[in-house]
Request: fold
Amino acid sequence: MPYKEKEIEKKYFTIGEVARSLKVATSLIRFWESEFDIIKPKKNRKGNRQFTREDIKNIKLIYHLVKEKGFTLQGARDFIAQGTESIQDKLELIKSLQSVRDFLIKLKNELPKT
Reply:
């Protein structure tokens, strides 16, 4: 059996990488960091933010609430205070359903027209 190289999983991400993944400005990420207690990036010796996957998950949750659902910052804070786990579960379910929908649409488009 050939040796399969184990993929190295990245533990920390820069603010630029996080901002690019969401297509937002780095200043927005810094602003949300000051507004929401659930975003707590570590800082290296130079003071650069190092975001974990958990931080990114929380930022995506805030993005979803504020940018996609239209919540105010206070509304998003209140919503998160009610329990992030159930919100995260719902967000994951929505993403899963969207990917299934996208797959089915692609499959439908590949079917021969009769």
